[in-house]
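User: Can you predict the 3D structure for this chain?
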Amino acid sequence: MSTSQRPRVFVSRRLFQETLDLIAQHADMDVFDRSGSPSSEELVARTTGCAGLIAQGTDKVDAQFLDQLPDLRVVCNVAVGYNNIDVAAARERKIVVTNTPDVLNEACAALTWGLILGVTRRLGEGERILRAGKWKGFQLDFLLGMDLVGKTIGVIGMGRIGQAVAAKAAAFGMRTVYMKSPRRPDEQIVGPDGVPYEGLSFEEVMQRSDVITLHVPLSPQTHHLVNRDSIRLMKPTAYLVNMARGPVVEEAAVVSALENGWIAGAALDVYELEPVVHPGLMKFDSAFLIPHLGSATRETRTAMCNLAARNLIEVLGGRPPVTAIPGSYIP
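Assistant: Here is the predicted structure, written as C-alpha cells:
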C-alpha cells in the first residue's frame, strides 16, 4: 500500500510500543503523547481527516463529536465499558464501535479480591500506621478485621468480570449470591463446580450480603444504583466494593454511610468525577481507595491495546471487527 493510500488514525493516549508498531504497519498515526488527556476541542481537531480513532473511556464520543468527523469509520475503545460512546449515533453514521472485552476479566477479578481483602482486613490502615512509625508492636486487639470464611458475597453485575469474581469466592470459603439480570430473569448462572449460584433481586442481594461487589456497566438505569436509600439496605457489618464505573455509586451516600455506621467500610477503584475523589471519603480509614487500577497489569493492558489495534486494522481493511460493541454498525 502506498503512503498516499494509507488511512490516518488518531490515538488519544500513549500506547505500548508493540501496539504502535502494529498500527504503523497499516496506517499513519498521530499520537497524543502528553500526560493527561486531550481536551474535547483537541480531540476533534486531531481526529479530523482520520478514518480511525483509538479512544479511552474518558473520551466523549457523542453525536456532536461525530458530526464534525465525516471521514471517521471506526472508534476503538481501549476499555470494556463504553458509556463514553453514543453507539446509536455512531450506527446512524455508519461508524463501527469496538471495545476490549474478556482480556481484562481475570485482572479485574483479582483486583476485586484485593480490594475485598484490603478493606475487610484493614490493610490500608495498617500500612499507613507502619509507614508513619506509629506501630507499637503486636497486640491481640489491634486492627481487627472480618473473616471471609462463612460469609456471603453479593455480586451486582454477573457478566464476564462478575462471574470471574464469583468463581474465586469458594477459595475464600464464601457463598455467592447475585443480582438477577432484569433482561434475563430466568437465566441460571452456574459456578466452576456446576452448581448454580443463587439469583436474587437487587434489594435482596443488598440485604443479605456481607460483601457487595459492583460490576455493572454504567447506564441511565445503573447511575447511582447505590445511593442513600439502597445503601441503607446493607448490614452495618457489610462492606461495599466498586469495580464498575464511578457514577454507579453516589459517593456522598457512601460518606454518609461511613459517618453514620450504616456500613463497615467501602473499597473503591473508580470515582464519580475522576480523577477528583469526594473529599469526605479521605477522612475515613474504613475507606480503602485506589486510583482506577482494575486492569492495570502489564500483560492485561498490553492485551487491551493490541485488541483495540486489531479491531482498527480489521475495519480499515474492510473486514468485520473482532469485538464490536452490541448495537454497533457492522459493514
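The chain has eleven helices and twelve strands. The first strand starts at residue 8 and ends at 11.
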